[in-house]
Specification:
eight-stranded parallel beta barrel; alpha/beta; globular; four-stranded antiparallel β-sheet; about 325 residues; 10 helices; 12 strands
Length: about 325
Amino acid sequence: MLEIAEFINPTPSPLWKLAKQAGVDLAVGGLPTDDLLAPGERPWDLRPLTRLKERYEDGGFALRVIESRPPLNNAKRGLPGGEAEIDTVCTLIENMGRLGIPVWCYEWMTDFNWLRTRTDTPSRGGSVVTSFDYADVTSEPTEGGPISEERLWETLTHFLERVVPVAEKAGVKLSMHPDDPPLSPIRGVGRIMRSIDNYQRLIETAPSAVNTITLCQGNFTLMTDDLPAVIRKFGKKITFVHFRDVRGVPSRFEETWHDAGKTDMLACMKAYRDIDFSGVLRPDHVPTVEGDSNAHAGYSSFGRLYAIGYIRGLREAVYAG
């Protein structure tokens, strides 16, 4: 049965207690923060990662996924310094294996990560959500300049050639997150993890059990009209799930409450049951509600509580049948 986790920032906060009170015992974590680093240590070194894991355990959480990445932009662009960046990933993966942390969620978005054009779009009952409209994105190239999709495939292939053998030896799954939004190009920058066909290409590029997928539903539902079928298609290749929803198309969409988007969330939960998904699923990108801060749009604490309860209800309904 799939397990419900929550993204827990490495720095203890009220969310730690709220998540425990909501019945969440599994953490999706970041890399060690400065307060966990001794002089000369790097976040991907064994000792700070050990302290990180112990901090989560002291808070009552088992650390199941690391969802932060060392710097990788030079590697993605094939620039000088890229090989050293891949070295840091190899060190991280080796140390995750030593500590029994089974999944590393990464992405291949160059120059910028997930992109929104508004963080205060009105939603149900006065809540606010994030949204994206390509018409509002500047056409000005990024500082790095244009880069083609084929060049990104070349650099990703090289990355996998180096890292997959390390991950196989360490017993750690490399779980690729989609581009957000799944649209290309943006500001001259190609985006390759943006379609079902491209995910199939990813799998075929490195045919290994550790070359896997983060099924971020908010992105994948913009790639297909039948998300449950895609879940069944990729099956065991899915090792981590972001459970969220949107309304719209890749060029113009908004986040939604978990029960108000375009996706049949119950059908998705049934699909995870059918493929015997046994990894962790976490809520993602929730509305900001009355009484909470929108300083970290998409990640307000109170909105997460609603999402956790909704997901738990779906799971109980599906797995009891």
